[in-house]
Each structure stands twice: as C-alpha cells, then as structure tokens.
Amino acid sequence: MKRFAKKISRIMRGEEKGFTLIELLVVIGILGVLGAVVALNVGSFIGSGHNEAACAELHNVQTAVLAYMAENTSTVPTSVDDCAEYIVGTPSGTYTIGAGGEVTQTDFAGGAACTLPAGAEEPTT
Fold first, then answer.
1. What are the beta bridge partners of residue 94?
2. Domain ranges of the chain
3. pTM, rounded to two decimals
4. How far apart are CA 55 and CA 70, in angstroms?
5. Distance (Å, rounded) from C-alpha 122 to C-alpha 125?
6. What is the Cα gyration radius of the chain?
7. Does the CA dihedral 31-32-37-42 come out positive or negative?
8. b or e along 35-63 (b: 16 or more beta carbons within 10 Å of the residue's beta carbon)?
9. What kind and span of H or E run contains 95?
10. Cα–chain-centroid distance for residue 81?
11. What is the DSSP annotation of 32-88?
C-alpha cells in the first residue's frame, strides 16, 4: 500500500508519466469482482420484493374477505369484487375464495404468487 501511495505522489509531482499495465489490470479486476458481488446481492433483493408484495396483497384480500363476512352475517363473498370496498388499492393478482372464506392466490402480476415458509398459515408481513 505504501508503494502505491508513493507512486501516486510521484505521478502527481510529474516524476512519472502513468501506471503500468499490470497495475491497471489489477484495478480493473478488483472493480469487476466488486461489481459481480453487488449485482448478485441486488438481484436477490429484487426477487424477494416481488414475493413480499404478493404476500402483502394476499393478506390485504384475506382481511377484506373477513371484514365482508363480519359485516354480512358470515356470508362468504363469491369473488374479490364483492368485497372490493374493503380492499386498499386495486388487487393485481387472481384470487379464489373457498366455501369457508379461505383465500388462495392463483396468480400475481408482479411475478410468482406468494410463497409461504413451511408451516405458515398466512402471509408474513
């Protein structure tokens, strides 16, 4: 490191004209490794963001179905449109409502549907 600092100071004073090819290749290699590490980590966050959005929307629809059932004497809605007044925003996924009021996400516009951890009953938010 001291050698590099001395080289920089000599270049700044005008005693040397530039860097050697090896020095430039080492710097380019280090930047390439750092870029690859950053790209891999950012890619994993993008994928988990789609899953989190799908789970949040599924939870929103489940809450809307429960609110509909509470207000309409345990009547189960036949579609998500029946309980649209209880949903915040517009759902971008496709949902199926079962006879007992359970909600299943069959498709999500942002990518894959909500994937829950093993043993979980409802989406984690």
1. 107
2. 20-108
3. 0.57
4. 22
5. 9
6. 28
7. positive
8. eeeeeeeeeeeeeeebbebbbebbbbbbb
9. strand 93-97
10. 27
11. HHHHHHHHHHHHHHHHHHHHHHHHHHHHHHHHHHHHHHHHTTTPPPSSGGGGGGGSS
Task: Identify the CA nearest to 68 among candidates 35, 44, 103, 38.
Answer: 103
Region 32-45: mean pLDDT is 89
Mean pLDDT of the chain: 81
Q: Is the pLDDT of residue 119 over 50?
A: no
pLDDT at residue 10, as a whole number? 78
Instruction: Label the pairing between strands 103-108 and 93-97.
Output: antiparallel
Q: Which residues, other chains included, contact 81 with Cβ-Cβ below 8 Å and sequence gap of 6+?
A: none
Distance in angstroms (rounded) separating the CA atoms of residues 102 and 11? 71
Mean pLDDT along residues 76-81: 86
- Which of 9-18, 57-66, 110-119 is least confident? 110-119
What's the whole-number mean pLDDT along residues 3-32?
A: 84
